[in-house]
Amino acid sequence: MGPGGVDDIWAWRVRLFAAISGFVGVAMGAFGAHGLRGQRAPELLAAFQTGVQYLFWHALALLLIAELWRRSPDPSLLRWSAAAMAAGIVLFSGSLFALVLTEQRWLGMVTPFGGVSFMLGWLLLARHCLRQSRTVP
Fold it and tell me: What does the DSSP 8-state code read for residue 2?
């Protein structure tokens, strides 16, 4: 699809989600380091920090996916990869943040679904790269 097409709109949305995720990562990291210290048990603070780190890594991955998307003749796998990583951010990092803030341990049951979403996103990105390597001269 050419410039201004549906693919460009979706790539823009992925970049926007990545940028907002980066902002949330900074805010939550600062809150965890300054607002929660002494307020939560060390293992909960470690879980919070894990949520922040995974959020950042996957926000960066989404920026990479959006750039690949712009350059790809067939971004279909990239769409699914971006969706899986975005779901992973919400489910994995979001559940860890909610668990630490509310101390409701049952929220930890959501976290593995986010982890699986992250792994699926990476596998779909790898599949896209393998598919593209066949078309590179």
Answer: -
